[in-house]
Amino acid sequence: MTHLTNELISAPLAHRAIPSVGLGFWKIPKESTSQMAIDAVAAGYRHLDCASDYGNEPQVGEGIERVLKDRLCVREDLWITSKLWNTYHRASHVRAACERTLKDLRVDYLDLYLIHFPIALAYVPFEHRYPAGWFFDPESKPAKMIPDAVPIAETWGAMERLVEAGLVKSIGVSNFGVSLIRDLLSTASIRPSVLQIESHPYLVQPKLIRYAHQESIAVTAFSPLGAPSYVPLGMAKESESVLVHPSVVEIARQVGRSAAQVVLRWGVQRGTAVIPKTQKVERLRENLQVFDFALTEDQMNTISGLDRGQRFNDPGAFCEQAFGCYFPIYE
User: Fold this and answer.
1) Of 17, 53, 103, 319, which sits with the fewest C-beta atoms within 10 Å of its C-beta?
2) 123 is catalytic
3) Which of 54, 109, 113, 230 is catalytic?
4) CA distances from 312 to 55, 184, 222, 276 (A)
5) pLDDT above 70 for 178
6) pLDDT by residue (tens digit) across 272-289?
7) In this structure, are residues 299 and 305 in contact, taking their beta carbons and an 8 Å threshold?
8) ∠ CA 108-113-118 to the nearest 5 degrees?
9) In three state form, how does the secondary structure of 125-154 look?
């Protein structure tokens, strides 16, 4: 399939290129996750974006095992990403967290392991609760987050040892800004290969992406379609969807594609990988069909011009509202 040859050239330390369109498993229900993984690979996906916090890695692992058993592809064709959760930032917990993810996903190594957030929380043992979530003790009154003062350099050093042990091919960060990345680069023995951030036409983040590319760090955009992932959570309104913006609708008419395909094409064409989430097989196929057309410079500029700095996934907002802890990270 031609779309599989359309890949980003990732950072020099990454072992290979990242497929430009992947499937994000955030909020995919456990009961449908395994089949969704199988359907995605059958449709042509080779980039699967996971995390322990999503709570469905064992089900993703069932799907991956079936995919490999049925020879829909070989392991080397898959790019599997997972993420270190906030409660495992202490160096003594990083390897155990990675090994738990490997066991759940039923693979011997990860292509990419990311620090999920620049947020360190008090350790929660696996046998006590897994995934740990945001609360230290959900049964306490009031239940709340308990931050832990762990330096990023400590966590990163333990991540580097995962690479040295062969458990992970590449390491990177998620939800980091320029200052944190710059500080990390000043001490890292292994440079981050990938930065994963929220980015869509309402949150373009041009300076951050430019800086990452300047440092040879590939960028993956989560929530590339913006509001739709957050409407069911009460974190966005239907009217905030970029897919209904008149400019996007008009460009979709001009190129004869869906609004979602236009927005995903914008993301890929600007040099980021995108990991849209869907539970519908027809959407899986549609989201991959973004490599046989291109947007003009004017169309790209029109979409980029929709930027209003609207962040849907902001710990500085949702942590206080949902978890009783004010924890801004982007300011």
Assistant:
1) 103
2) no
3) 54
4) 21, 26, 11, 15
5) yes
6) 999 999 989 999 999 999
7) no
8) 150
9) CCCCCCCCCCCCCCCCCCCCCCECCCCHHH
